């Protein structure tokens, strides 16, 4: 059994959230999880085998939550904020855990023996951390796959991996390696993959790994190699060798001796500085795939491929300086199936170019050359050619006989931006009866005859985007010919209308793209009898009229995009026999000028999503919506002209889950306006003109979870306004509340998780206001008029994780104020008016904003409890000095903003102990007179630095 909670915004997992659920696989990725209760997974002790917590906000390993798990084999903690690894974290998992992902965290050190007792751990991923070194005995001896990509390793971790016998995959891409070892390992390695790409390796030592390693796949791409010397890979016996994106200018003739001559089947030398195909290739006996694109090769020796010409299957020479197809060099290479000669300077093709070697050629890429002519029988000697690309050439001379020899084999033809003519080249393409995929976009075709495509009975994909067509012949796509056609693309032409039966009875069609034309009218049955069509895109046209039954017999239509047109009305008469219970429609008619929506007299359609935003509706189209009572799930009426919501304003929409009414100008909501909307979970009423809400306004919306009332004129809430709901999130920002509407929250005290009442006029909070909010996670009180906060005002908010008090002239004993909120991880105290730094005893805090105050000094006692802090904003204060004594109390600090302070000097001592900082903002330090060159030398992991000129310092002006 598997459970997924993905992209939900979940921040806290409490002890009983999963109840008695027992699952084998639990996926909780891409949320905002910061806190996991100690007993959250308790009921899954023996069932849970796989747990995915990737891309959340965890600041540490949830040790206590993992402790009860007795069967966990697979754990993903990728993409969190974990900085420390300790052996105790894995004690409970050491006998079960086999796969562990810890990538994209903040780990800079793997302590000795931290994983050594995890006896079953065979896959460990530590990608994208800040690891500088890897110590001996820091890894389990049974490890088979070790990934350390994109760390800060400056040396090959020989000691750490030397005694690991079963290591088969080793990834070290994107580190700071500048050399490789010439000493061997204690236990020889037979690696399937060794990835050393994206490093700073300048040379390969004469005795790499001292014959103790073989590597089937060896990656050295994106390094700084300039030469490959004799026997560079001796003993490694690579099967695939990646040397792309270096600066290789020379490969010695004996470079591939010592093993590779018998083992190498793939060689990638893309993006180097080779001026010729290296003679060293003549020693390779088994090479099948050779990639040499983006070098400076202008000429190819006749015998350069001779040693492997009978085995070569793929060759890429694109992006070089070839002026002709290298026919002599390819002589007798009769097994080659894929040839890429794109992005060269080839001007002509001759049938002799493929003689003696073209029998097996399947794919030929000649795009981005200077080809102007394709002579008759150009492909006489490529009888198996299936795919041909001639895009981005200047073809002016081509005849009906040019492709005559591949008429039964060619399936894919790409000539984008290649033809210089006004009419569709019907006579040229007509013989190609096997074509399945045609791309002729970005040419200048103005006309196409109604029979132009009749020879293409196998056609599946047709692309003529970005031409200059003004008209589609009514029978261009024929039901008896194009039975296999799936995808038609005619976007960005100059089409003005879609006639009757233009797209008719094409039984295989799935996607139709007509965006960006000048279509004004969609005629009767323009889209007719298309049983598999799922997508029609008509956005960005000039459509004013859609005639009745324009869309007929489209039972699988799932997406119709009509946004950005000129519709003033839409009737359901436009649809006939459209959609089915398993394929409801998503209809987008936003950004028109629609004033009326009518049901007409046609049969009903099933709509799952309707976007009518950015139109001119003056009232809710209740009759129109009634046609979708049992199917619609999402309704967007935002940015219209609706002024009020009457009782039962929407009718019985029993399946609706999301209702958006933002930016209308709604002034009045009558009682029971939302009746029969019991399944709605999200309701957006923001940016309207509401001054009050009727009692029990949302009572009928039993499943309501998220309510946005921000940017209105509310001053109070009726006591029963939320009765019967299950609200978790309430947005009340930018209203006119003078006091906290506590009574209004009475019905949702236990369900409320997120409350935003920022940018109001609140003046007072007493110690009873939050007494009954045990599950509140986020509280935003920013930009009110709060002055005094009682010490125990937050005493009951034990689940609080995020608190924003910014923009309030608050006076409080912050040491006592936060005594009861020890789980807070994000705190905003910007623009409070502090003249001295407050004491903040929050050991779990990871983000603190103190900007916009008047602090001239940060005292040690203010930060000594903030060991887990990751982000600190001190901008726009009055700091004159930066004290190094602060940073040791915040060892994991990643982001620091000191901009717009009157700082006088920055020296090496200023940031002593601030080694973990990755982003430093030093903008607008107008008073600075000293900035030493080594001031930032302690910041080993610094990746982003924001600064500007400093007029008072000569070298920074």
From TrEMBL:
<dbReference type="InterPro" id="IPR050333">
    <property type="entry name" value="SLRP"/>
</dbReference>
<dbReference type="InterPro" id="IPR001611">
    <property type="entry name" value="Leu-rich_rpt"/>
</dbReference>
<keyword id="KW-0433">Leucine-rich repeat</keyword>
<keyword id="KW-0677">Repeat</keyword>
<protein>
    <submittedName>
        <fullName>Chaoptin</fullName>
    </submittedName>
</protein>
<dbReference type="Pfam" id="PF13855">
    <property type="entry name" value="LRR_8"/>
</dbReference>
<dbReference type="InterPro" id="IPR003591">
    <property type="entry name" value="Leu-rich_rpt_typical-subtyp"/>
</dbReference>
<dbReference type="Pfam" id="PF00560">
    <property type="entry name" value="LRR_1"/>
</dbReference>
<dbReference type="Pfam" id="PF13306">
    <property type="entry name" value="LRR_5"/>
</dbReference>
<dbReference type="InterPro" id="IPR032675">
    <property type="entry name" value="LRR_dom_sf"/>
</dbReference>
<dbReference type="InterPro" id="IPR026906">
    <property type="entry name" value="LRR_5"/>
</dbReference>
